[in-house]
Structures are given as structure tokens and as C-alpha cells.
Write a structure and sequence with these properties.
Layout: H1 4-18, E1 25-28, E2 49-55, E3 58-63, E4 67-72, E5 77-82, E6 93-99, E7 102-108, E8 116-121, H2 141-149, H3 155-160, H4 170-180, H5 193-218, E9 251-255, E10 258-262, H6 264-267, H7 276-282, H8 290-294
Antiparallel strand pairs: 1-6, 2-3, 3-4, 4-8, 5-7, 6-7, 9-10
Helix pairs in contact: 1-5, 4-5
The structure holds zinc ion.
Length: about 300
């Protein structure tokens, strides 16, 4: 699922390319993508794009007169900037925002259709979409600590909870925890002040560095390669590969729709974290430490 760095670059590029341009037409390629009833797509025609922002992981395109198009890309939704009037690809094409000088296409790869478009009018209508997560790059250490400590959850869950932090998912939570050298399953209320400071610094550094990297990659063009798996990542999607810090193999735990990738040597004092279902299955065969696993 695209997270803060990828979403930021989408928004920046879309603004750079289309701000102030009037929307000629909003075409819907698949009726299921449109999850709102009013205003209709035709109400957006002729309205200039005033800006592109974000509420959590939802992209918000603002058009003249307080008309808003909200897009949630979910896991496999992507945006592409194409030639004016570009055809909506059959099957994966969901919607097209037509401007005189180009078309923004919303597509969704894979077989599931989960990406969502909401059309709204009036700024107040945006409030319903705010899950209240903190924007880490704008937050103070105190606000960050308070958000995490509101409930006692594992760090992995807290970092990815849209009600706690905004626009962080599986990929960047793995990267942030690795940078902070903290276990994904440490409890939020068990953090020392030094660990909290470390996590805050790591979150801001990782998100900032990645945004900068993706911004550089996109340059003056369009970010075409939006993915949660990148070779420069330290642990996310790098199961069994060497941790770039210590060389130990990256570990992975899969649970429900989530997964945690971590380095046992850097983050859990060499302990391997059993996910309960898996450990029941493996019983005594489940190695408890990195040393045991390597033997
Ligand atoms: Zn390591």
C-alpha cells in the first residue's frame, strides 16, 4: 500500500503539473470505484485544481468552489499521468481526470477492486474521513509520545494504526523500527524516554529520507514505480537477506493482513518472535533464538 513518501511525491507532482488547470472532464471507468452519490462527476467539470493534499492515506484533490475528489489507493491502486484524453485501460482502469494538457489515470492492479473515489462538496464534508492520526513529520516529540501511549499496543500495530499515526503502513513501520533498533512487538507503554526519542527520530529520518529519495527519482516526471518493496530498504520485503547493519538474516512474521520484517540481532537481542499460530504449528521445532536458527 502506498505510504507517506510515495503519496507525498504523487501529490507534489500532480500539483506541479496540474495546479490551476481546469478539469475538463472526470470519467469513471468502473462504477464500483465511486463510493459517493453527490455531487456527480459532471459537477467537477470546468473547476480549476486548487491543490492536492492528503488525509491519512487518502489523497485529496481540491477543485474550485470547495469540490473535493478523495482517492484511497488501497494496496494496488496507482496514479499515472498520461497524454490528454488517454483511454481508461479495460479492467484495471478506474477513473480519469482530464485536463487540457494531460490526463491523470487511476488504475488498480490485481483482481480485487478495493481502491475508492469519493466526490464531496463543502470543506466540512472532509472531516468524516479524518481518522485522527498524527502527521509524524509535523509532530512534536511530546505529541508523538502521547499518541503512542494512548493505548498499550505493540509498536508495529501502533505505527500502522491510522488513528495513531498518519499514512504509515507495513513497509515504513518495518523500516522505522529497524532504524530505531526496537522490536515490532515491544509495547508502546513499555518504551523508555530514550527509546521514545529514538523512535521519533527514526520515524522522521526514515520518512524524510525516503520522501527525498522518491522525489529525486521522479524528478520533473511522474513517479511510475510506486511499490512497497524497494531494494534500498533495510528489512521490509527482505526476508532471509542480510541486514545492512549487522549482516544477520532478516526475519519475518506474517499475521492476518500484516507482516513484520525485522532483524533479530539489531532489534530483539537475537530472539526470534513467534507468531502464535505459527509457533503452535511448529511446536518445539520453532527456533527461539538466532543462534538456534543458524545452527
Ligand atoms: Zn541487523
Amino acid at each position: 500500500m502506498p505510504e507517506l513518501p510515495d503519496l507525498t511525491v504523487y501529490l507534489e507532482r500532480f500539483e506541479a503539473i496540474a495546479r490551476d488547470a481546469p478539469l475538463l472532464r472526470l470519467r469513471i471507468g468502473n462504477p464500483f470505484v465511486l463510493r459517493s452519490v453527490t455531487p456527480p462527476p459532471s459537477a467537477f467539470e470546468g473547476r480549476r485544481l486548487l491543490g492536492a493534499t492528503r488525509i491519512g492515506k487518502r489523497l485529496v484533490f481540491e477543485f474550485e468552489g470547495e469540490y473535493f475528489a478523495l482517492i484511497h489507493l488501497m494496496v494496488l491502486g496507482r496514479l499515472h499521468w498520461k497524454k490528454p484524453g488517454a483511454a481508461i485501460p479495460k479492467g484495471k482502469g478506474l477513473a480519469a481526470f482530464d485536463f487540457e494538457h494531460g490526463t491523470l489515470l487511476l488504475v488498480e492492479h490485481g483482481s480485487k477492486r478495493r481502491a475508492a473515489l469519493h466526490l464531496l462538496s463543502g470543506r466540512d464534508s472532509l472531516k468524516a474521513y479524518d481518522r485522527g492520526g498524527l502527521e509524524v513529520l509535523d509532530a512534536s516529540l511530546d505529541a508523538f509520545g502521547a499518541a503512542l501511549a494512548r493505548e498499550n499496543h505493540t509498536l508495529k500495530r501502533a505505527l500502522t494504526d491510522p488513528g495513531v499515526l498518519s499514512a504509515i503502513g507495513n513497509a515504513y513501520s518495518d523500516e522505522i523500527l529497524h532504524r530505531a533498533r526496537l522490536s515490532p512487538f515491544k509495547q508502546t507503554r513499555a518504551l523508555s524516554q530514550a527509546e521514545l526519542q529514538g523512535l521519533y527520530d527514526a520515524a522522521r529520518a526514515v520518512l524524510g529520507e525516503w520522501t527525498e529519495r522518491l522525489r529525486r527519482e521522479a524528478g520533473a516526471g511522474w513517479p511510475e514505480k510506486v511499490t512497497a518493496f524497494r531494494p534500498e530498504m533495510a528489512v521490509h520485503g527482505r526476508y532471509k537477506q542480510a541486514c545492512p547493519v549487522c549482516g544477520a538474516p532478516v526475519q519475518r512474521i506474517v499475521y492476518a493482513d500484516n507482516e513484520a520484517n525485522y532483524c533479530a540481532r539489531c532489534q530483539t537481542e537475537g530472539r526470534l518472535l513467534a507468531d502464535r499460530a505459527l509457533s503452535r504449528l511448529l511446536k518445539s521445532n520453532w527456533p527461539k533464538t538466532l543462534d538456534e536458527l543458524e545452527r
